[in-house]
Each structure stands twice: as structure tokens, then as C-alpha cells.
Amino acid sequence: MLISSLKSREDIAKIPPDYLPASPQWDNYLTVWASNVAPGGALLATTVIALGATLLVLLVATPAAYYIARFRFPGRLAFLFLVLITQMLQPTVLAVGLYQEFSSWRGPLVWVALILINAAFNLSFAIWIMQAFFASVPKEVDEAALIDGAGRLQTLFRISLPLVWPGIVTAIVFVFVNTWNEYAAAFILVQDPALQPLTVAMPRFLGLYVRDWQYLFTTAMVAVVPVIILFAFIERRLIGGLTAGAVK
Hints:
The chain has one domain: MetI-like (MetI-like fold). 69% of the residues lie in helices and 0% in strands.
């Protein structure tokens, strides 16, 4: 993908093709950057939606997972089962309902709609994985903090959260990446080209008569770099979250 992003249209259409470009076309990145893909267009839209959905999921999933892990209440298993069922529903299946619900949301409000949709579809995963980490921490740790005078919220934020940080990081990464790559809901709801995220904006370079593959690959490179940087910074904690509990 990187090599193809540095080719010209003639190099890509050449038969037989050459693996390396005859002359690297760094101008491809300048052309894409000057378009509405970045920085103030599709890249901004994708970033706002991904960060907004991730933050909303954390705000809702953290106390929900903590409460489920620490307390037994009537209907607990039924609640967890209903949460799990939401994983079976994808935006494509609910396309008609989503359009009817949010079709009147225009302008920047459509980003709010996508934040709500992506948060809803990723919330169940975050609750399940985070409640497993909260459950792995002995209740006696919380009880000791409560005896020392800490409130329930203080116990959650100052005692429990640092102990389950790998699980939180794992949830953050998966929610962020899933939202960053989401296509169906964005394609259905965002009709204004100036507000479309990267996943919807990329196919614009493939027209009916002209196919600018070099710009498509360039845009794809712009789209994957932030995710690669995210993984590079939190790789250790992510691996710790994925492997936690593998060995007893």
C-alpha cells in the first residue's frame, strides 16, 4: 500500500506492472492533504467520532461493569445475556431503522448520531471485558478502602481502576479501532461530503471513468497511521489485557 501510494497513475496501470515506482510521487500526499480528506475534512470527522464514541463507552461501561462485578442483584444474568445479544446486531442489519431515527440530524449533529451509534454497538464488548477484570480483583480490596473511609466512587477511581487498567486499555483500543473503521452507518447517514469520515471519503477517488488508485492508497496510508501509532504506545498494556487470566 505504501509503495502504491508513491506511484503515478501510469505506473499503476502499466502492464506488466513494476513493483517499485519509476519515480516516487510524493506529491500524491500533498494532493490528498489539500483535498477535503485531511486535515480538516474526513480525518477530522473520523477522529472526532472515534474519540467521542470511545469516551462515551468508557463513561457508561466503567460503572456498569464495576457494579455487575461487585454486586449480585435480581436479573443480573438476564442483563448480561441481553448485553451479549446486542453483539449479534450490526449497523447493516439495522440500516432502515438507523436511517429513520437519525435522517433528520443534519450538519455536525450527524457526527453526534454516529458517536451514539458506534458507542451503542461497542458498549457490550466493553462491559463484558471490564467486568471480568473487576471480578478478578478481590472484594476485600474494596472493603479495606471502605473501612478506611473512602466512598464508593473513591474506591472505584482510586483503588479499582488502577488495578484493572490493562482491561480498560484493551476496551479503549477495540472500541476506538472499531469506530475508526466503521463504514455502514456513516455511509447511510452522512450525505454531505464535507462531513464524511475517511471510510466513506476514500471511494471518491474511484470514479466511473477515472480511477485514481494512487490517491486511494495514499488516503489509506493516512487512515492507518493514527491506529499504528496508538498500538505502538499501548502495546504492552494491550497484550497484558488480552492475556490476563490465561494462566492460573
